[in-house]
Design goal:
The two termini are 27 Å apart. 42% of the residues lie in helices and 12% in strands. The protein is an alpha/beta fold and 428 residues long. The longest helix is centred in the first third of the chain and has 26 residues. Helix 8 crosses helix 9, helix 9 crosses helix 13 and helix 11 packs across helix 13. Strand 3, helix 7 and strand 4 form a beta-alpha-beta unit. An eight-stranded mixed sheet has the order 1-2-4-3-5-6-7-8, with helices on both faces. The protein has one domain: Rossmann fold (3-Layer(aba) Sandwich), CATH 3.40.50.
Amino acid sequence: MAVAGDAQSSAAAAIMLTSGASGRLNALFSPRIMKSLLMLMTAFLMLLVAPFRGRISRVASSSSSPSLPAEEKCRDEKKIEKGGTSGSGHVSQRKKVPVVVRVPANVPWKSSSTVLAAAVDQDVATRRAIAIQRVVRDGDEKTFTDFSFHVTVKGETLFTQSWSPVSMEIRGLVVIMHGLNEHSGRYSKFAKLLNVNGYKVYGIDWIGHGGSDGLHAYIHSLDDVVTDTKSLINKVVADNPGLPCFCFGHSTGGAIILKTVLDPKIEACISGIVLTSPAIGFQPIHPILTMVAPVLSMLFPRYQVSAANKEGEVVSRDPKALADKYSDPLVYTGSIRVRTAFEVLRISASLQQNLRRVTVPFLVLHGTADGITDPLASQKLFDEASATDKSIQLLDGLLHDLLFEPEGEMIANGIVDWLNERVEKRMR
């Protein structure tokens, strides 16, 4: 089934903004940028063998991102959780959450460990306060909203939220995985649509995103994000025994969901997945980059390439949706970091080699005009996956953020229909 897209409006065409894995990857790994990075790497290696090794060691160690002390995390969380949750499915003492105006932190990649830790600490606290405030205000007569914190195996704190139907019996669960640079709260409208159809919805902000710990939009390892996702799914299933659990993932979030369900233990407890514009179609523009990128990602993981943020494709043909997204303080609009870009490329390459292992029922949707992720990769997923219950929709003329396109409501309803069919089949 294809949805015909309208011609891109002149207003939208004038807005050149990027999102998710985006064209920043190509810009970051363009010949000009790679030449600059190679020169930087060469200079670094030359200094490494020079007599000033002690000084270099201090510079190298200062670029690391240490974990925040546990006591400081606890103090921050106690401050933030003032007016926390009631545990009954909705947020209590809503008026106690303070109004916070976010000042985006621009942390230099070569900051000292002390400066970096302090800046990250402040930014996390601010982002988390905003995320909590939004959950507090998001509930209505049809939806209970709640938030909680999920501690990873590495001791990092992730922000999670849930949307529960008020008057309908819960007949299924949906775990939402947002895309790179965004956060789970962007899918509130979709979650509420799922609520009125009897689904309880969970969202998680991965590390470095939304209200979770970490340098904003910095991903040291997407394998860690996959591990965190497995942990959350196990908790959701354990807390709601007997209910079918589905997953929704957008862009890089779709890639994370795909890799998560390759684990047989997770696949066994998932009734189906829905992927929009999944990030499984990236390839470096030159083969040499497959060898250079891992080295650069280790040497300069937090290095930001400003040129990688200047060009790209629009992600929606709706000017208001674009304006709302890029004015959101929880959406990262800074320059992509080397390690983050490499991790997106790495998970994409891994999935390309394992598509045949996908056995869980799935629906994949992709706009044919998507300039961020490759719709042909979604077609390859459909063709090669071993799943017997699989569907694909290549939507004619649509861009990357499908749920925020002018046809977004129709697409969301189509996803609900797909979920309903599987729930009803299970109940027979």
